Amino acid sequence: MELKGKKTLVVGIGKSGLATAFFLRRRGADVTVSDQRSAAALAKEIPSLMEAGIAVEAGSHGLLTFRRQDLIVVSPGVPFDTPELVQVRSFGLPVIGELELASRFLQGKVLAITGSNGKTTTTALCGEIFQAAGLQTLVGGNIGTPVIDLVDRSGPDTWAVLEVSSFQLETTVNFHPRIAVILNITPDHLDRHGAFANYAAMKERIFAAQGPDDFLVLNGDDPVVQQAASRAHSRVFWFSRSKIVRQGACIFGETLAFRASENASLEPILPLNAIPLKGKHNVENVLAAACATRLAGIPAEAIAAAVASFHAVEHRLEFVVNIQGVEYYNDSKATNVDAAAKAIEAFPGGIHLILGGKDKNSDYAQLEPLLKERVKAVYTIGAAAEKIEGQIRGFVPVVSAGTLEQAVNLAAEAAATGEIVLLAPACSSFDQFENYEHRGRAFKELVLARRGKGVWQNA
Q: Which long-range CB contacts under 8 A does 12-15 form with residues at least 24 apart?
């Protein structure tokens, strides 16, 4: 893809948008960035952009700016149905996302992982397995480093392990992973995608460009994911926590095992009690990672060693501290109802649960059985608080906390020895925080600050 001298527009100056703009400029493109935020809000970004010779349009999107381009690259946070994008697409102007752009320059092979929940843990685990096997490995995408920033570090022997979201997949055309993984598909981002069917279709774009020599790893326990197999042109492998699979990864007795084909015997990978992560959902994540990395040719011994030494990723059911016998867990990444349910399921009971944030058109009543069975009280925060309270009223005592600080204080005062204070909000963070990482760090700081109030702690 020739970029030198091309007029290019990057829409949205978030993390990946900035990386994309600088990438295009380094390759000789004439670059403009456009963001609806004000120049004051972009005060940190504008100087470096202008110094690199990149034009900045702030405060609004100008239609003429969009129409004068040879190529438009959309950041994941910008809806694809933004009016200016809809109009220029109708004119036939090429509009792609950062993931698609990066994939056209990225060397080596790609393992791409998507799903409603578990993407980050599975991606990080796969990265550690590849590294443990001595392979040249890059990890990025929706986790940490934008894919476009991996391009210059890639080579013919590189494996790029990528977490990819529905927002990123929405703008793909030729994105072609050697191994694609769909962990699960449950309602999420319906405020962006509208119908659940649209959201599921975005997830399936991960394998749209695959061929018969590629691999697709699917969750055999997820009925929505199962349906994707009929639309695949690649070789389908399965992972399952509940049954023996024809080919893929599953549980045999107390052992995680892999089957290379329908006629092959089960190959033991590691005992279940060697998995250090809490929660049944993390067993599924390990199954998916083991299947994908085994298909990449990594020996079972290397997989087992990497899994056994793996620690929970920050903000994913992360243990924070024990104060006077009360354990605090940060699962700020639980940004939808299904993720919150998985977090609750990881504990037998005695949970003081913090819920709330920015609603994503979710149904919180789905939590009813778990709330009744395992949760002592719910503390609501943020813009979704009133909706959550209305949908779960009668299932469990509900305390309207408003802010995260108030929720932490109220939960800490109510929790008794042996109980849990759990942040698993089931919402995005954008009403009160910059992102889920900001929210998770704030939670940890608030919890750890309680150690200075004369209470005993056992970190």
A: 12/74, 12/75, 12/76, 12/77, 12/78, 13/37, 13/42, 13/45, 13/49, 13/56, 13/75, 14/75, 14/76, 14/77, 15/146
